[in-house]
Design brief:
Layout lengths: L1 H6 L5 E4 L1 E2 L2 E2 H11 L5 E5 L5 H9 L3 E4 L4 H19 L2 E2 L11 E2 L5 H13 L6 E4 L6 H10 L8 E5 L5 H9 L16 H4 L4 E5 L6 H13 L1 E3 L6 E3 L3 E6 L3 H6 L5 H7 L2 E4 L9 H17 L5 E2 L1 H9 L5 H15 L4 E2 L6 H6 L15 H10 L5 H20 L4 H4 L2
Parallel strand pairs: 1-4, 4-5, 6-7, 8-13, 8-14, 9-10, 10-13, 15-16
Antiparallel strand pairs: 2-3, 11-12
Helix pairs in contact: 9-11, 12-14, 16-17
Length: 414
Amino acid sequence: GLDLAKTAHVDVAIIDVLLPDGDGLELYRQLHEIDSTMPVVFVTASGSSNTAIEAMQLGALDYLVKPLNIAEVRKVVQRAVEVRRMASNPVTMDPASAESAEGDVIIGRSPPMQEVYKAIGLVASQNVTVLIRGESGTGKELVARALYQFSKRVDGPFLAVNCAAIPEPLLESELFGHEKGAFTGADKRRIGKFEQCKGGTLFLDEIGDMPPLLQSKLLRVLQEQQFQRVGSNETITTDVRVIAATNRDLEKMVSEGKFREDLYYRLNGYTIFLPPLRERGKDLDLLVEHFLRQANLELDKSVRGIAPDALEILRRYSWPGNVRELQNVIRQAVLQTTGSVLLPDFLPDNVLRAVGEPDTADTQAGYDTVDQLIRSKLRSKTPNLYDEVVGTVEERLVSAVLQDGGGDAHAALQ
């Protein structure tokens, strides 16, 4: 196992507390020296194992109690792989290297995005709390990961919690942990994210949705780096850098008494504003190119480009879901594309309707003849005349064959 960890990229290690050829805790320490960001899950025969608890306090991700429940194992491993992805997948901020970069890329050359890059470079290495603000889908998690990867805590863990996705009683336990018997269903001691993440970075997404009771406990951690597990009087000291993100109007929430003013100022050590896609100008073209390449790889397609009229439709759309929505739209369109060029007909109907274009079902008439199609493309001075004409003819041909055969191309050609 140690030899494998030294020579291969390991996503997650699952190790028993008691091993026939060694000690689980010592093995964990050796694995941590080899790769400090590798998630480790312990297996123990006893829910009260002090060794497993000690491992969690040292930074292990979780522990499982025998007999193992396979569904629980699968759930924990999936979470571990996601933790590994966030911590180790590099986040590149150079648009020029977007095509060849491994991992995730923050793409944009617009003035607002240049300000984001400057902010990341300015604050990443500083041990201050950062608040990332922006609409849903603008890429706040990518910015949080970039802050972590360019920080002095990069050798420590990076853990993320979505405050809006976890019910209030479970969120408190997720963040601060609990003692066995603290509440119904608490059958073992749980180490929370603030204890696990000691020496690392904790990303609190959707911080504006955090309940008031937890806001006060979070404030204490930020002020004193101290907290208590649920059901315990023991004060635990930690060392965690907090990066928070929200799409909510925190100032309005403070004025309405829905968010603590002192916590707002404590979180607001440094603020990074992510602009919505509609305010980023020609960044949309760069993102379309990037997501087109990405979709080709994921779907094993070979769509070489996007038609100018299709790109114009994307430019006119308002993008309420921002970059995330654009990525999904391009993926859906590539999936639908039958030729080598992404045409307007392949865009989702909700995008076409929003910009006043006819739905796909209404475009069957299109061009009466191939000659009309060619002349129309010539008038538009398209640089991809061949690909667009061939792509449109291919689409019409496939559609006609499937209609004639009742959905069975083979039957239509008999």
